[in-house]
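Attaching the record inline, Q. Sequence:
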Amino acid sequence: MQANCPPAAPPSNTAVEQQPLDRALQARALHSVPALTNYGNEFHANGIPELMSANTFRTAWTDYQQLMVDKLNEKVVGTSLESDLLRDVVIQTAREPLFASTFNYASMAFNNHFYFQSISPAYHANTSPKADKEKPMSDELAESLTTSFSSLDIFKADFLATAEAMFGPGFVWLVWHNQRGAYNNGSWKILPTYLAGSPLSDAHWRQQPVDMNTQNHESAGGLSGADHARQSQVQNTVGILGPHSADGQAARNRAPGGADITPVLCVNTWEHVWVADWGIQHKRDYLEAWWRRINWNEVQAFTPEAALSLNKKNYPRIG
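Structure, as predicted:
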């Protein structure tokens, strides 16, 4: 006769520890495809006008997002990651070589959702707030972007040129680079990430001597002690990112030497998103059409206050 055992402890905070869970609990806790709040039902029925057909939307969002979520759930079921936010899964697995596939599924699901969530069904012929009565971009955000890029036209040209030039699938991001200083709160940057690469600051840890997507547990277990330590432990705790520095505590989760950035917008350059509708030679046309569908209210919702107050900074008078 078996003795009564106390209930199992909840999963730990480590990405590697697995615990047996009740099936019903798993069904409640596992990741799922989020609802698009930006006219998602309209997109499902009709696609995105002048950007994406209903069939392509079904492939790029409905089917692809479900595939990423299903694959991710296969990896995290019964672990402490199954109920975490996607961004937390990305961050927690970014430096674990054995969790490269988990990172890829989580990061791709995060990136793909970020892309679709910022698309609007409304057509904006011009990003200038004074040229479009619908004001697709607020004066505040427009002035902030102009401070970093000189003009909205230059910003658009640089962003789309970066996306068009990507030789391979990925995403191009508009990010706010936070730089605390006497005369500078930060600046806007354009950041390309390839494949399922992440723009999240805390995920910029992955520096691997081999492609871990082609490795298994046995081959990864053969890493040298130095390689394993470099991939699984923080290597530098001194200097500007040291634990005793002014910024060290705030940056303790950031990769050594990494930038403190906040993503606010991205475009998806994976071919399954645009080739069927636009043709292999018309990537630029796809990008131009996407630009006219950006929901700038959504972009501003992600924008840090420091970026919106960029032009309100009081600089010392000279002379």
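The radius of gyration is 22 Å. The chain has one domain: 38-209+233-312.

More tomorrow.
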